[in-house]
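Below is a filled-in request sheet from our internal design queue. Each sheet records the structural input a requester submitted and the sequence that came back. We keep these sheets so that new team members can see what a complete request looks like end to end.

REQUESTER: design group, bay 2
PRIORITY: normal
MODE: inverse folding
CHAIN LENGTH: 489
BACKBONE (tokenized):
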């Protein structure tokens, strides 16, 4: 593939151009390691490194055009330099143009919020496939070009990867695509240049403060997604979350709401809840689902609302929703041969833990105990650690604190931070078992018939990241091994 530099620059607003724009560009890159002859290199100031320092290196590799925020003092002959206000944003538009604007050839819907992004985006993907459409998905668990899986390395890929995958989606006949839109991606302009048909806001609670520093900055990053939605898109927000109306303040999109508690465009109430499903009433019609908990009722209502806003018949949407199954690592239930239930869930924020534990208690009432296994990630927001431990202790009968992904921190130091949130009574009902496998085993040994063991924090992840190395570990597999041993005894 080859495009003229002048064509590419037509989609951005250069502040200054030094050199000829009459060049043929052979590729667009922001990773200096991938640069080859004829490349347009976009220098981005990153979190850990600044792409500007690699400009001399990429020119030696054959880059013929540079997009940057600061012009280098020394400029090489035959190289065109383009200065822009924000090179990360420019990359989004350049990537879209390079791949012939694939997002404008799809009905692309983004989902943002603290919790529920993966479930909502994935269920929309599954719903469209049930309706017979080829569909794409960008999610934390895995990306899909219709049926073909593409490994996910981050919640929202970089600008070039996004557009490359969307190009593949279009070329393989996809009509719809659903994307988790992380706060990092909006702050880092990864979604700039994309054409969205709609946006969904799930909720907002404390998360990623290691990056955003304040809840206000985190909320602003979420809001930016709605600020850039076009007038012909829809903006569907959770009316029961106080941040919902904030998301709509400056959007040009059609404003819509969903709620379990108040008047909204899309309404839902829980009729009956069990550990393996919930009977919902949505817009006056009952639908049996395989999902549990109030938080999942919100997710399903968002799916319903988005499908209706995309133009689908309400009755048919409800029928297809009854066929949807839980997403990997999101409230996955497993029945023990000894009569207790194990639940594996991705809950890794205080609010997500509260949602899951409250849902379990709503179902089992006083008929069983809740034994929770949970940790916290290393090199992330330390402030949420004691809050998570306190909430888990408050809503559990027994708590086991264990290692999650310690990354480059000492796991025992992380657990000490969590224990800071516990009072004397909480500590009497708690254990610290650093080894996650042993922690899960201990929880199942404590469990009796009618109890629920919640294993929280990792969900779909099949690894533990320790000192920068990912070691294979799967909560679900550990549970099933224990159940197999119970069967053999």
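RETURNED SEQUENCE:
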């Amino acid at each position: 593939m080859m495009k003229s530099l002048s064509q590419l620059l037509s989609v951005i607003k250069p502040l200054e151009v030094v050199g000829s724009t009459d060049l043929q560009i052979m590729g667009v890159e922001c990773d200096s390691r991938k640069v080859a002859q004829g490349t347009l290199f976009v220098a981005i100031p990153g979190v850990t490194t600044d792409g500007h320092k690699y400009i001399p290196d990429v020119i030696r590799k054959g880059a013929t055009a540079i997009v940057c925020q600061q012009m280098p003092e020394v400029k090489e002959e035959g190289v065109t330099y383009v200065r822009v206000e924000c090179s990360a944003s420019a990359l989004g538009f350049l990537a879209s143009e390079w791949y012939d604007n694939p997002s404008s050839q799809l009905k692309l819907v983004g989902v943002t919020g603290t919790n529920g992004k993966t479930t909502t985006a994935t269920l929309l993907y599954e719903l469209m496939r049930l309706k017979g459409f080829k569909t794409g998905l960008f999610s934390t668990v895995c990306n899909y070009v219709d049926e073909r899986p593409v490994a996910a390395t981050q919640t929202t890929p970089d600008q070039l990867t996004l557009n490359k995958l969307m190009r593949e989606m279009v070329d393989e006949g996809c009509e719809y695509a659903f994307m988790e839109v992380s706060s990092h991606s909006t702050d880092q302009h990864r979604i700039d240049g994309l054409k969205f048909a709609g946006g969904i806001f799930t909720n907002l609670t404390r998360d990623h403060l290691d990056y955003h520093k304040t809840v206000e900055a985190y909320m602003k990053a979420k809001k930016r997604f709605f600020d850039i939605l076009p007038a012909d898109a829809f903006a569907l927000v959770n009316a029961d979350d106080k941040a919902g109306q904030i998301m709509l303040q400056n959007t040009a999109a059609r404003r819509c709401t969903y709620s379990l508690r108040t008047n909204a465009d899309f309404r839902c109430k829980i009729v009956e809840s069990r550990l393996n499903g919930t009977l919902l009433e949505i817009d006056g019609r009952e639908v049996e689902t395989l999902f549990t908990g109030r938080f999942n009722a919100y997710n399903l209502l968002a799916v319903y609302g988005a499908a209706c806003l995309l133009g689908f018949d309400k009755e048919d949407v409800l029928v297809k929703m009854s066929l949807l199954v839980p997403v990997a690592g999101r409230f996955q239930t497993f029945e023990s041969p000894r009569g207790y239930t194990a639940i594996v869930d991705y809950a890794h924020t205080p609010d997500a833990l509260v949602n899951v534990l409250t849902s379990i208690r709503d179902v089992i009432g006083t008929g069983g105990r809740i034994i929770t296994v949970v940790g916290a990630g290393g090199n992330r927001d330390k402030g949420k650690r004691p809050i998570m431990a306190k909430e888990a202790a408050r809503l559990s009968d027994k708590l086991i604190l264990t290692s999650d992904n310690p990354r480059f921190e000492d796991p025992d130091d992380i657990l000490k931070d969590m224990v800071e949130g516990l009072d004397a009574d909480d500590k009497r009902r708690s254990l610290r078992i650093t080894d996650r496998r042993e922690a899960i085993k201990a929880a199942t040994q404590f469990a009796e018939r009618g109890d629920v063991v919640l294993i929280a924090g990792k969900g779909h992840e099949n690894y533990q990241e320790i000192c920068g190395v990912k070691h294979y570990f799967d909560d679900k597999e550990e549970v099933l091994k224990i159940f197999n041993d119970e069967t053999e005894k």
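SHEET NOTES:
- Residues 390 and 423 are 8 Å apart (CA to CA).
- The chain has a mean pLDDT of 94.
FILED BY: M.R.
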